[in-house]
Amino acid sequence: MTAISINSASSRRSPIALMSRRRVVASLCAMPALGGVSFAQGPWPSQPVRVVLGQPAGSGSDPMARGLAPHLASAFGRPVVIENMPGAGGTSAAAVVARATDGHTLGIVLGGPTTTARAMNPNLSYDPRTAFQPISLLNRSSFVLTVHPASFPGVRFADVVDYARAHPGKLSYASIGPGTVTHLAMEELKAALGLDIVHVPYRGFPQASLELAAGRCQLMFNIATAAAEHIAAGRLIGVAQTGATRMSLLPDVPTLSELKAPVAPFFGWSGLIAPAGFPEATARRIAAVIRAAFAADPAARGGLDRVGSEMLGTDPDELQALQDSEATRWNAVIARLGLRATE
User: Fold this and answer.
1) Does the N terminus or the C terminus of the chain have fewer Cβ atoms within 10 A?
2) CATH number of the CATH domain containing 206
3) Cα first-last separation, the chain
4) Sequence-distant (≥ 6) Cβ neighbours of residue 321 within 8 angstroms
C-alpha cells in the first residue's frame, strides 16, 4: 500500500450529543441499511483517505491510482492509502465502498461493479444503481482482441473465427471476471458468430495476459497496457480493436467494425466512486484535483496515456451518464444470453 502524509488541522463533526434521544432514534430508523448514509458536511477530509482498487497490484489502474495519491494528499492535506482488493470481477472491493460509513473510503472500479453486477448476481449485497456517489470518470480506452500465436493457423480475425467454429469447446478465453466487459463482450461475440469457447476468469489483466502468453488459454479482450509488451515480443498477436477507430499504438490492427463483426464498438474504463450520501460538492472538488493532476504530471496518468488510453478526470455527472448507458447495453446482453456470475 502507498501512503502519502501531509499534516493538516483536523475538522470537527456536528456533535450528535445535542440531539434528543428521540431524534437520534428517529434519524437512525429513517436511515437506509445500505447506500443511504448521510456524511458530515464539514471540511473534508478529517482523517486518512482510503482508496480501494478492485484490481491487483501492477494492473493498469494501479499505477494511475498511486500516481494520483500524492496529488490528492497535497490538495486535501491528509494521507491517501491505495488498497488492492482483487477478485469477483471487482465487486468485492465495490461492496467495501458501498458499506463504508466513515466518509473517507473511496473506490476505483472498472465498469461492472457499478453497472452489471446485480444483473449477474441477484443476491449481490449492494444495488449498483443506488449504492454509490460517482466522482470522476478517470480514463477510457479500446480493448484489443489478443490471441496466442501458436493456437491458430493464421493471424487474422477471420482465422480465429474459422478455427473456433471448426473446434467447438476446444478453445478457452480469459477475462478479468464474470460481469466485466471482457466477459460480456466475448459472450456477445460468441453468440453472434455461433462459437463455443470456454470462459476462464482471472483476477486481473496482468495474470490473464501471462496465462494467455503461456498458451494456457487462447484469446481475450485485453487492454493495451497489459498486452503491448507481449505483442511487441511476439508472444501475443492483436487481431482486432474494439473502438470506433484504430488506436495509434496499434495502427495495423483493424477494428471490429472494419471487420464487419456483429457487435457495436465498446471500450474499457475506470471510475472513482464513493458511497451514496457522499457530498457531491466534495466529489466535484476531488474531480478537479484529478483533472489538474492528469494535465500536469505524467506519473498521475500511470503510463496509460502512452498505450492509447484517453485520460479524462470528468465531473460526477459524466461518470453517472456513462454508467447508465453501460448498464443499459450490457444488462440487455446479460438478459438475452441468460448469463450469471457462475458463467
Assistant:
1) N
2) 3.40.190.10
3) 32
4) none
